[in-house]
Amino acid sequence: MVRVRFAPSPTGFLHIGGARTALFNWLFARRQRGAFILRIEDTDEVRSTDESLAAIVQGLRWLGLDWDEGPEVGGSSGPYFQMQRLGQYRSFIDQLLAKGQAYPCYCTPEELAAMRQTALLEKRPPKYDGRCRRFSSEDRSARDRAGQSSVVRFAMPTEGVTRFHDLVRGDVEFENALLDDFVLLKTSGVPTYNCAVVLDDHAMQITHVIRGDDHLSNTPRQIQLYCALGWEPPQWAHLSMVLGPDGSRLSKRHGATAVIEFKDVGYLPEALVNYLALLGWSTEDSQQLFRLPELIEKFSLERCGKNPAIFDPQKLLWMNGEYIRQVSKEELAKRALPFLQKAGLVSETGDDATQRLVTQAVALEQEKIKRLDEVPHLTEFFFQEEIAYDPAAVNQVLKAQGAEQVLEDLAQRFEAMTDFSEQAFEQVCRQYAKERGIATGKVFHPLRVAVSGRTQGPSLFGLLALLGKSRVVTRLRRARSLILGVRP
RNA sequence: GGCCCCAUCGUCUAGCGGUUAGGACGGCGGUCUCUCAAGCCGCAAACAGGGGUUCGACUCCCCUUGGGGCCA
Length: 488
What we know:
This protein is mainly alpha-helical and 488 residues long. It contains 20 helices and eleven strands.
């Protein structure tokens, strides 16, 4: 059975790049009917925080990327935190030590720094020279007895090449002589990334390692470790990086990069998932919009691209608009409600009448909404008693010739109405324009500004119907006094 | 600095020796229309450069250039 994992370090939020990696793992697992495992690589004790862990979990949950094993859900290959797995590592290290495939290194940070300096001066690659590898066991016990602290280094093969087949990159090879004896275990007794990742992936029976391109050069080291332990390495798939608009690695200075920030400004998770899926993966017909089941069905590592992808907020925004237009008005209202509450337009408790108003209001603006955080501004005149009039609209539209008369006439006609449907309002307005021989625009535009305070908004008659007779008439009268310059 | 990876419109990409180099976002123009959107129609826009291989290269190989990553 296919088993994949997403293994973030809890040292920050779940960012776009990480989310893309998690998504591809998840899609692959779901497509193969395998298991998606979440493992927390918290061996960086100073930078790991509980807040980051919570943020990552929250981000994944929001995106809908559920895991079959890991924090909060458990599983038979736990624990899923590396710091809780420390005890499981020692025996493998001892095994390597006994076979001479690893050795203690007593070099101090100062010696290492000096070594690096010399190498650089001599224009050699700054790689560990393996001096401690040659010590005899007597040397080592003497040093241990003297209380010298040590790390454990892996004894890399000094010749040959490490080849592997990468599911997205094809065949890749590295010369072993160029790879140095990397540290397996730090003086603190905590394993390094390259060590823990191999031990854990093996223990958790990971079949496919799908991760960022930035780990490609770590792969030969890990493969050698698998071999030294007599284990079969997993299959590899290295995804290209996600870059910012300037072509450098996506980071905070490019704007929003934490997944949760996208939630906060009103992106739908399904839109972000769809967009992320297209960042480095595509179908032969370049299809853009996928429902989740379709994405799972069509996803394959073979169709992942090799080139880095620049994150394009504009395309995401377009896609979000597409998704917003696809959901039902009830669903849209449900999702927009927190934004209206946050803006103070709708109370936190919310009765049924408010609920209905919200539903109708968002429905009128649905085709226009690209992000949920636009909803308060787009619909505020439905929730306010005192609306704000855009000064430019007042000057250009309300104060135009004849507008004041139109508003007064319409107020009267509206008051006489008994049916307050969209159609009824439209009929009355058109009838009025016809009778007076006025262009419809001369009627519609002042009317819109009078009831909403602005020149742009939803369909005029839908707007009137939802506002209701009394509010419409009140606003027409207030707009008139605004034109005449008197207090109502 | 060494090693590795990558290279098609501004961006995401299709293409897997013979295509008018296709789609999507964005841009521009038109259309529809009570405004704004949405929709529809159309336009501009790319094979980084140089060598090979081949009857024929976007496609295969090499070099250069550019970008990215890893090791410190």
